[in-house]
Amino acid sequence: MLIGVPKEIKNNENRVGLTPAGVAELRKHGHTVYVQATAGLGSGFQDAEYQQAGAELLPTIEDVYATAEMIIKVKEPIQQEYALIKEGQLLFTYFHFASSEELTHAMLERKAVCLAYETVELPSRALPLLIPMSEVAGRMAPQEGAKYLEKPLKGRGILLGGVPGVKPAHVLVLGGGIVGTQAAKIAAGLGAQVTIMDISLNRLRELDDIMPKNVSTVYSNEYNIREAIKTADLIVGAVLIPGAKAPHLITRDMLKDMKPGTVLVDVAVDQGGCIETCRPTTHEDPTFIIDEVVHYCVANMPGAVPYTSTLALTNATLPYAVKLANQGWRVACLLNEDLQKGLNVVNGEVVYKGVADAWGLPLASVESVLKPMPTPVA
Ligand SMILES: NC(=O)c1ccc[n+]([C@@H]2O[C@H](COP(=O)([O-])OP(=O)(O)OC[C@H]3O[C@@H](n4cnc5c(N)ncnc54)[C@H](O)[C@@H]3O)[C@@H](O)[C@H]2O)c1
């Protein structure tokens, strides 16, 4: 198959859809990989590394879209890319269609085959192509929190791990899923006293078994949260209710019960946030202060560490990309139910219920689009 890797052109996006290692793997399977010049630079991969791995470099994004049968990238195509997409071209990337009607209509019009990373789903219901970014954001949360706890950055001026003879900071983590677990682990590793809260008792049991001694688990309810915020120095919001807005576990009135200089890192801000006073911020201007409480609410935290994020993402996407290239999208999706769940928009039809519901569009069955194309009669 002819595979294309364009350079991401969305503002501040430094990740890339395929690493040189990924190129080598696809080449091993007999595929041709075209990489746009400088596509990997933001993640620290030089053109020469791609060439050594067997990629052919193309000078422009137009060349990549015009040449490839399958495009592998990171973010959804933006307006400048719409016209470059060819009918029947397979796009393997994040789309988040339910948050953009314009993108949905553009992909329907282009008659592309859109396989969305975010809806690829395992039988366990886990989302294997979202997990790596939650892992990155979760591990970043205490790192960012520790930074903003410093006095010059308006925090309480407390060192997360304390020192001998001085108590460490108290870190409260709301939600013990992927983000929360990783955040708790890193905060505990830095020596903080960590409390992790969840509404799933089973999850709390698992965490209690695997976490170090300086992490305690507490059931999440309003009473317990109100108590914990009084002593917390850093609070990490990591709650998710699938398909719904995050609940506001910390309401505005609770800020007055916190110590001045407390830092809130609301990782769940991309789902509306679990702290009422949070609103999305950017890496250029990540924080704001309300009632002497520092709010960090960057909606794309992994964007700050593109090297790690690109490797983490492509470790997860590459095995699927190899299947798509080896078998073609129809056979690959027939044989792999997890990949099949990634099909959102195919040849001018919406095949994913969440997207059809979001924009009031008709829903075609996945089975209908997976039927082999009729062979043209000579
Ligand atoms: N800001 C970013 O850059 C970024 C990056 C990655 C993920 N995220 C977001 O982080 C959030 C968490 O993602 P995840 O992968 O950890 O999800 P997850 O499903 O693995 O974990 C969510 C946890 O929240 C728990 N929960 C639900 N209601 C709760 C409540 N009332 N109190 C306490 N816990 C509760 C669930 O039981 C679950 O364990 C999501 O909104 C995700 O989109 C943000």
UniProtKB/TrEMBL annotation:
It comes from Hymenobacter aerilatus. The active site is at H96, D270. InterPro entries: Ala_DH, Ala_DH/PNT_CS2, AlaDH/PNT_CS1, AlaDH/PNT_N, AlaDH/PNT_NAD(H)-bd, NAD(P)-bd_dom_sf. One of its GO terms (molecular function) is alanine dehydrogenase activity. It comes from the Bacteria. Residues 4-137 form the Alanine dehydrogenase/pyridine nucleotide transhydrogenase N-terminal domain. PROSITE patterns: ALADH_PNT_1, ALADH_PNT_2. Residues 149-297 form the Alanine dehydrogenase/pyridine nucleotide transhydrogenase NAD(H)-binding domain. Substrate binds at R15, K75. One of its GO terms (biological process) is L-alanine catabolic process. This is Alanine dehydrogenase. The keyword Oxidoreductase applies. The keyword rRNA-binding does not apply. NAD(+) binds at residues 134, 198, 203, 220, 239-240, 267-270, 279, 298-301. It catalyses: L-alanine + NAD(+) + H2O = pyruvate + NH4(+) + NADH + H(+). Its EC number is 1.4.1.1. NCBIfam families: alaDH. Belongs to the AlaDH/PNT family. CDD domains: L-AlaDH. Keywords: NAD, Nucleotide-binding, Oxidoreductase.
